[in-house]
Amino acid sequence: MNEMNETEESEGRQTILIVDDSPVNLQMLGKLLNDEWRVKVANNGKTALNIASSDDPPDLILLDVMMPEIDGYTICRILKASPETRDIPIIFVTALNQADDEARGLAMGAIDYITKPYNNAVVKARVRNHLELKLYRDLLKNTSLMDGLTGIANRRRFDETIQAEWKRAFRDGHPLALLMVDIDFFKNFNDAYGHQMGDDCLRQVALALAQNLKRPGDLAARYGGEEFACILPDVSTQGVKKIAQRVRMAIKSLRIPHEASSAATVVTVSVGATSIMPGQETGWEVLVERADQALYKAKRQGRNQVAF
Ligand code: GH3
Ligand code: MG
Ligand code: MG
Ligand code: MG
């Protein structure tokens, strides 16, 4: 098997993070589970928290309770308190076998509780069930964050992402850029070509937007009716000008006929672009306001153009 295939195969599999201070326990559980799933291990709480909040988070955590420094209950509490890690299911695996202990673990938000010594087949079956539920939850979540007409991110995903990216940009000292993209004379388009063609136009514009954002962290979203927004982490004012022009040109190059437009004979967009270095006293709302004002300016100046 070549490297490419191995990577592809492991990407399709769900990931389990096993957290235990004992190397023997880590090895035993790892050996039991790594034939069916991708397994990561952590022998202390700090490493576990880092892996859980990374860009490649696990789908399930098997968590030991008694560990030096940070114990399992504390790790569970921290993970459940953060929006980014809250949805990762946790199963406690522990020698604490009193009903009280189990009740405490479950009350903290753990999805299951396995006491040692455990039966291998039972552990595997429980892990399998919880991973299957996780798969359905992920599917549901993805659907709820996707725009039904165009298939790109919806407004809800935009709102979640811009807040998270704003925080991250502030923390890392990076700028955050935003494009507001609005189709020119789209009411006329619907009137001239009908709503079916209007919907088809929206799909094509959305696809062109998504295809023209190059970095994995970029997000193209449907902001409202015929208005789209692009979140561009770590893009400067200079950079956002280039991207805005590229996006505008890409949509014009689709050459969707629009004889009822006063800006051109094909579908065009106006783009408001801005980039801000997040500061203590500014919030993400400022980014949206500035991009909105820039979009309004592009419209006022004649449409089919970018403004800042
Ligand atoms: P401007 O250049 O100033 O942006 O003019 P406009 O006509 O594009 O702007 P306006 O806001 O007046 O009209 C937006 C139109 O977009 C009105 C509405 O019928 C249409 N629209 C919004 N959502 C959808 C949709 O999901 N499908 C279709 N076909 N049309 C939509
Ligand atoms: Mg232990
Ligand atoms: Mg419009
Ligand atoms: Mg509009």
Automatic annotation (TrEMBL):
May play the central regulatory role in sporulation. It may be an element of the effector pathway responsible for the activation of sporulation genes in response to nutritional stress. Spo0A may act in concert with spo0H (a sigma factor) to control the expression of some genes that are critical to the sporulation process. GO terms for cellular component: plasma membrane. The lineage of its organism: Bacteria, Bacillati, Bacillota, Clostridia, Eubacteriales. Keywords: Phosphoprotein. Residues 15-131 form the Response regulatory domain. One of its GO terms (biological process) is negative regulation of bacterial-type flagellum-dependent cell motility. Residues 174-308 form the GGDEF domain. This is Stage 0 sporulation protein A homolog. The modification 4-aspartylphosphate is found at residue 64. The keyword Phosphoprotein applies. It comes from the Bacteria. GO terms for molecular function: diguanylate cyclase activity.
